[in-house]
Amino acid sequence: MPKLVHRFVLAGIESEVPPARREIVDKVRAWGVPLEEETADAIRLVASELITNAVVHGAGPITVTLFNRPGRLVIDVLDGDPSVPRTRGAQPDDENGRGLALVRLLSARCAWEPAGAGKRVWAEMAMPMAVETSTAAAGPRGLFAMWAKHRDGVEPKSLTMAVA
User: Fold this and answer.
1) pLDDT of 89
2) For domain 13-131, which architecture applies?
3) For labelling, which of 15, 26, 61, 131 has a CA lying 20 to 30 Å from the CA of 51?
4) What is the pLDDT of residue 17?
């Protein structure tokens, strides 16, 4: 099965977080990954924490990239602030400060790295195997890329491709 990739760009405002996490779960389901509600909730939480941290502590625009291979999902969030992500010691009554700890708990692996003028923070999650993924559009070489330009020449906000 090819590696599936989906990318979209956010301006970096808090109101974008809920639709972004919905888009992520919808895309994973569209790839044919059978998600129980518990797994979907874990994806939503990890995505929400990574994107919210980029919005609150980073700098926009924010690029979210999903990588799906059989049994694995990587949620990668790129923002324009090079600051090192830090885990805060949240107190029992604190409403914030547990995001990265939750990401570590729910993911198989997570890390960050400098990227250009900013940073990339990612989490890899174990997923159930996809039941069926359409490769009809992949063509004989197993490569499909959708990257159309709008009439005004501006690239779309979303990119999906399958790489063999």
Assistant:
1) 67
2) 2-Layer Sandwich (3.30)
3) 131
4) 96
